[in-house]
Amino acid sequence: MAEFRPMVITNKGQALIAKMMSGSGKIEFTKISISETAYSDAQILAMTSIGGVKQTTLVSRVTKTGNAAVQVEGAVTNDALTTGYYMKTIALHAIDPNDGEIIYAACGASVPGWMPPFNGVSTSGAFLKLITTVSNADDVTIEVDPAAVATVGDIQDLQKQISDLQAFVGYTDNDIYGVEVDFKNKKFTRLAGAVSMTPGASFDAVQAFGGRKRCNVTDAGEVIAYYGDAGYSETGVLTSAITIGEGDAAVTYAVGTKVQVMVEQPKFYYKVVPLELEKVEGGKGFHMRKVRYYVSDTKKAGFKLHPAFIQDGVEKNVIYLSAYEGSLYDTSEGTYILNDAQVYASGDVLSSIANAKPASGLTQNLTRAVCRSLAAARGAGWSQQTIQAATATELLFLIEYASFNMQSNIGAGVTNKTDDGATSMTEITGATTNLGNATGSVTNTNGFNVVTYRGEENFFGNIWKWIDGINIYNYGVGSVHIADHGFADNTDADPYQDAGITICGANGYVSAFGYNEDFDWLFIASECSGSSALPVGDYFYQVKANNSWTVARLGGSWANGTYAGGFSWGVYYGSGIRHRNVGGRVLYVPQ
């Protein structure tokens, strides 16, 4: 990649600045020339002409970057070049009222860039963005030649303007699916391709929804069977051998091979369009009062890849969510712990299988950090559930059901038990085995309602689930800090970033989520004056006033009733807390 030294203003350019300052007019930039001749900074200072010019371009844009500086843009293409050349000097030309066109400033290349000749098939080009001093940016003529080649910046800005306008007016594309949420009037309106759709089968053709499939994943991250395939298992081990591939490439996985029951989630793109925001008084960010949420299987102008599919800057095509709440695998005994026996030991592993009582912190030290290590012990790419993965499911549910309220749309879940105050009262996993990839609820053998959203059983209820990648700095501030790797507790240090959102300072049913453009995918309460039905229907727990860091858990447990739900967050536990009503889930992100 070409690298250029800072712009040097020529003697002629400095004289023009002096004339401008004495009242002789404004600076008008005319063109940019590119030379294959190298010049030193001293030579540029005395420059009155430039040799070896291979290409020139009219100035397409001039924008102020400060009181005494401007950014000048232009672009060139190689469609008329028969011979390539190295770009060694770039000169910026301007009009002097006495001398006519002069070289105002120029810069030499530290690393010259190669402009190839046209190959007759595809065009190459260079986008030029020059920053130079002008003494007073108000005295620069901003008009540019309409014949100038549009730069990449011009095109990107135009695309953004069109996208923003389209988003505000409303998309009509059939492959974009959206919902408008009016928090104040408690109203939900389907948008774009979702207008005539209803939850369930009509969304199955959309990969983000219908592409969610339960599958068996090995510790090495290999998917060896999907729900409905021969040999697929929900017990945590293969009960019959599975062969993948053919001939010399065939691999056979023997009976007894450990596999986790996961939900393959294809990547998707999203856009959040705030229509009405209210500044959070005394805090960061905004309350969302009216907003549009959109998702698409393909990237659209203005859409972003959901952060669940980006880890440490690397994009992923799929991630694997746990089908079931976490239970433990006893490594020393070589068996799954199916009864939540409080025997956690170093080397044990967090799992996702049917027919197991979820692991809890009844007496064992199942803090978030311990749950993190138990999940990571499975191997590279494995972690406990993250804030990014959890919000991906939340967003998809919102779009599909045009509602935040999972309880009213799917089922109450395991949320209505009378707590005995002493034990872990969870129901065993696997009640929704026969529902497979579908959404719905069943009554288990104990008479309790067990829910699943497109393969994820008990996304809420039964037991709270620890969530990683989010730390809350309370101390009366209530700031939210987010990371997608390098997880740790009680910190805002890199890679954690301040989300620019202030949490609600009181417990209650959510009435508004916080908004910051860079973290517009979060569903963290900034206000709690709603009800158990609308606009969200879920509860938020916090200790903003306390002088402490806290961690996050999601969904509610067996006795939380209407307080529970897929958007019910608890951010009041410290990192050292373990509890009989908190467990976790595993997540696999391909490496």
Q: Short description, anyone?
A:
The protein is mainly β. Helices cover about 10% and strands about 35% of the residues.
Describe the structure.
The protein is mainly β and 591 residues long. The chain has a domain of 148 residues. The strands form 9 sheets. Strands 30, 31, 32, 33, 36, 37, 38 and 39 form an 8-stranded mixed beta sheet that branches. Strands 10, 11, 17, 18, 19, 34 and 35 form a 7-stranded antiparallel beta sheet that branches. A hairpin with a 5-residue loop joins strand 12 and strand 13.
Tally of alpha and pi helices: 7
User: Unreliable stretches, pLDDT < 50, 5 or more residues?
Assistant: none
User: What is the mean pLDDT?
Assistant: 93
Strand residues, percent = 35-45%
Largest sheet features: 8 strands, mixed
How much helix, percentage-wise, in residues? 10-25%
Q: Looking at the structure, what is the overall shape?
A: elongated
Radius of gyration: 30 Å
Structural class: mainly beta
The end-to-end span amounts to 28 Å
Number of strands: 40
Layout of helices and strands, plus pairs?
Blueprint: E1 3-4, E2 8-9, H1 11-21, E3 28-35, H2 41-45, E4 53-58, E5 61-66, E6 69-77, E7 85-96, E8 100-115, E9 125-133, H3 152-169, E10 177-182, E11 187-192, H4 207-210, E12 213-217, E13 223-226, E14 242-244, E15 251-253, E16 260-266, E17 269-279, E18 286-296, E19 304-305, E20 310-311, E21 314-315, E22 318-322, E23 327-330, E24 335-337, E25 349-351, H5 368-376, E26 382-384, H6 387-401, H7 406-409, E27 440-443, E28 449-453, E29 456-457, E30 464-473, E31 479-482, E32 497-502, E33 508-509, E34 512-515, E35 525-527, E36 539-541, E37 549-554, E38 569-573, E39 582-583, E40 586-588
Parallel strand pairs: 30-39, 36-38
Antiparallel strand pairs: 1-8, 2-8, 3-4, 3-7, 5-6, 6-9, 7-8, 10-11, 10-18, 12-13, 12-16, 14-15, 16-22, 17-18, 17-19, 18-34, 20-21, 22-40, 23-24, 23-25, 26-40, 27-28, 28-29, 30-31, 30-37, 31-32, 33-36, 34-35, 37-38
